[in-house]
Amino acid sequence: MKTGRTIRTAAATVLATAVLTVGSAGTAAAGPTGAEWRLCMYLGSHPTLQTGSSGEAVRHLQCILNEVYRYQNVPQSGVFEEVTRASVAHLQLQFSKPSTGVVDAVTWGVLHP
After folding, report:
1. Is the CATH code 2.160.10.10 the one for domain 2-111?
2. pTM of the predicted structure, to 2 decimals
3. DSSP of 33-102, one letter per residue?
């Protein structure tokens, strides 16, 4: 079982690195335009989200990361997993915020300027 966990951890690390490498080119450098926001319409609450969170708020976050901020590899599954966490942490760095990978009120403020 430990081998399986090691492989999953290594795979998550490789995947997160790929997201940061691919997503970093031009990501979050240019401000979003109005057109992208229409792709991520959501009327629900904006709770704190972190690894393990799930639901429509997570799907909304993933849509914003992909469509508005041009991260290309974040699955819009509604499950907050490692790729989502790594992308959030990268976005936080781009906006000079603490890079926690957790979407709190400050990060929602960055996502919805």
Report:
1. no
2. 0.71
3. PHHHHGGG---S----B-TT-BSHHHHHHHHIIIIIS--S----SSB--HHHHHHHHHHHHHTTS---S-
